[in-house]
Structures are given as C-alpha cells and as structure tokens.
Amino acid sequence: MATNDFQPVYGMTDIGPPEVYTWQQVEEQARKVLNKYGFDEVRTPIVERNEVFVRSLGDTTDIVQKEMFTFVDRGDRQLTLRPEGTAGVIRYVASCGQDALNGRFYYVGPMFRAERPQAGRRRQFHQFGVEMIGAALPALDAECIALQAHLLSEWGLSKFTVNINTRGLPEDIAKVGEGLRKMLSPHRGQLCADCQRRFEQNILRVLDCKEAGCQEMIKDLPPMTDFMADDSKRYFAEVLRFLELLKVDVKLNPRLVRGLDYYVHTVFEITHGGLGSQDALSGGGRYQISFGDRTIPGVGFAIGLERVIVALQSEQTQKWEQSHGVPLWFISLGTKAFEENLKLAMIWRRKGLPCALDMEGRSLKAQMRAASGRGAKWVVIRGDREIEQGLFQLKDLQTGVQEELDLPALLSKLAAAQIHNFGAPLM
Ligand code: AMP
C-alpha cells in the first residue's frame, strides 16, 4: 500500500493521543468559563445551504470567492461545509422565537476552508466561538472582548495582544471605501493582484494586505475613522472606555478591517507571539446579519483551537495531562481467572475505578509488559488458586512489592493508595 493510503485528506489532520488530551482539557475549561457568563451551547449542522454563507459573509469576500467547499447533493441542492460558525448560529437564532434575540451562545467544532495548507493553516480546523445576540451597545462589545481575554488567561496564555478597530456602520463603510479609492487610485497599478480585485469589490481589505508593496502604499493613509460619522466615532470611544473600566489592555490598530461583510462598528483580532507568521489566535466583532425578513445584531468571536494548542506549547505555563492510561490492570492466569477478571473489571468500572485487562490469554510476562506499557501503577494477578480461595495478588509496579490479599484488604489498600475509594460495598 502506498503511504498516502494512511493519510487524511490534503490539508486535514488526525488528532490522536497524547495531543487529544490537551484538546479535551482546553474545551472543558472553555465550557466552564462560558458557563460563568451564562452562555448556552448550540450545535448547528456542519453543512448548510450555500446561500447561508454567501448572503451573510458577502459574495466578494475571500472565503466565499475562493475558499468554500461547496457541492451539489443528490437532491440538486447547493450545499457548503461551514467555513465559519457565526452564519449557522445566526440562522439558528433567526429560526427561534423572540427569546433567542438576547441569547448567548457558544459553539465548538470543525470548520472547512480550501486554503493552501501551511503552518497554522489547515483545510479542516477547529474553532471555539461565541455569539452574544443583542443590539449595538458598547458595553456588550467590551464584555465580549473581556471574556475572550479571560478565556485565554484561564488556558494559561499571557503573551497575546488584543488589536481593535472600528468599521462604523454600513454608511461609514461606504464612505471609507470612497475615500480610500480616491486616495489609492493613482497607485492602483502597483497593488498586488488580490488588491487589484479588492479595489473595486472590497477595498477595505486592501488595508490589511500583508504584501510588502501594498503595505508601503497604505502606511500613510489616514485612519478609517477620519471618514466616519460622529456617532460611530462616539460608539467606538465608548467601547474603549468600557474596556478601560474592565482593565482590558488593547492596541488600537487603524488598519484592522476583518474579512467579512457582516461586521459593523467594533472589530478585533487577538495575535500571539508564539504563532509565527499566521499569528492570529482569534478574531471577531460586532455584526448585523439578515435572514429573510429578520436582521439579527450581535457581537462574537472565534478562536482557532489548533493555534491555541501551539500557543500553549510556546508558553508552557500549564502542565496538561498527557494520557488517560488506567492505573490498574488485571492479569489472568488461565481461562477461569480471565472470565472472573473480565466480570470484576466491568463491576469496578461501573463503581468508578478505571481498569483494564489483556483479552488475548497471553503469557504472564506479556500481560505484565502490556500493563506497564500502558501506564498502570498496579496489577491484580489471579489464577485458579486465587479464584478458588477468594484471593488477589496485588503488585505495586513502582516498588515491585507483591502481596496476597483477600477482597476487603485489597479494597482498603486501593483506597489507601488513593487509587479508588469504592464507598459502597462492592459485590
Ligand atoms: P477568522 O474568522 O478567519 O479570523 O478565523 C478566526 C480564527 O480561526 C483565526 O484567528 C485562526 O486562529 C483560526 N483559523 C482561521 N482559518 C484557519 C485555518 N485555515 N487553519 C487554522 N486555523 C484557522
């Protein structure tokens, strides 16, 4: 078989042990933090109708133009693997009653973008995101950013920067676009190929182009706020005031625009020093998304979990558990002992003690090797004699000491070693 037969699809990655344990703990901690803020989890389908994304993200955005995995199903429907989480959650909110209109939701799961894979960029990646549904209120935007900083620090991250800017309202965005077009048109020919296209369709994105030539041209442009109405500037000033009140450090970045059409007012992106060139850990902002006759306002963010894992490795502040290996293995000498051990293992697991046993009837030596290879601290050895007399050979693999015990003695030994306190009588 060619080695490719064992690989996942191009740009996608398996997540197995030991790394998967870090993932589980990261997700668990995130759920705990979100519960403190009164959030509900929502699980929307991974596949949506194509227009759910095209209409909300905007048909001139990079994601919609170049990156969506879109296909036609057997019923001739145009469907898309979700490239981000917000559109699906807002579609869900639009389908609910009035109550959802001030809901707070979080989601976690895979997203799909047909980008060129590189470090920090996969075709299937995972996001933890939140959506705080509600009309434009500076305090809500500030709370959303503060929550994000709280979550990152709860994970043990500190070397991050919260970059913030405002896009103003759609009217402001139109004015900013006009102003930028006027200023950039004499230099249009020098922009990169992507920005040539963006010039007509999505000029704001020229501001955050990473190409050196474009950077050179945009560095002297005035901040976007220069083109905005006073109300929008006041809104942003209020967001900054609330962030100060909540003691969240932010860095004003007048070039930050974010890629999607649905954003209005506040936008933000958190970068992390340990990530290399793809240094964005999370991004988000305030949005307004329309489905049918309903327009849903809210503010939210999405954190890339692959990048969180890399950032954690770079900071090394927390010791993440690497494996859930079981502390106790049964060793069976003979068929009778195996059947009794199998029964007892099931009972003990139901009582809460993680334990395992070899199923293949191998030699004592092979079973011992399997137990210590899988991280066991103790083994319980039984053969025909032990079964007949109700005895157990308990061996401590760290000290090598082996003792013959009856059941009550065995249980108190396990409790004393803090392996497990069965509490209720066993059988
Ligand atoms: P975005 O909405 O594109 O700003 O994405 C939010 C976060 O998701 C980013 O800050 C990254 O951490 C993560 N992310 C986005 N695209 C990818 C990708 N292709 N591979 C891995 N992580 C990604």
Provide a concise account of the structure shown.
The protein is α+β, with helices and mostly antiparallel strands and 427 residues long.
Describe the structure.
With 427 residues, the protein is α+β, with helices and mostly antiparallel strands. Helix content is 37%, strand content 23%. The chain contains 14 helices and 16 strands. The chain has helices at residues 19-36, 50-57, 62-67, 86-95, 138-154, 170-184, 193-201, 212-218, 230-245, 305-315, 335-351, 364-373, 384-389, 407-416; strands spanning 40-41, 47-49, 69-72, 78-81, 104-112, 124-133, 160-166, 251-252, 263-272, 280-291, 294-304, 328-332, 355-357, 378-382, 391-396, 402-406. An eight-stranded mixed beta sheet has the order 1-5-6-11-10-9-7-8. A five-stranded mixed beta sheet has the order 13-12-14-15-16, with helices on both faces. Strand 3 (69-72) and strand 4 form a beta hairpin. The longest helix is centred in the first third of the chain and has 18 residues, at 19-36. The chain is elongated. The model has no long low-confidence stretch (mean pLDDT 93). Bound molecules: adenosine monophosphate. Adenosine monophosphate binds at residues 84, 113, 115, 120-122, 125, 127, 280-283, 302, 304, 306-307. Adenosine monophosphate binds next to strand 6, strand 10, strand 11 and helix 10.
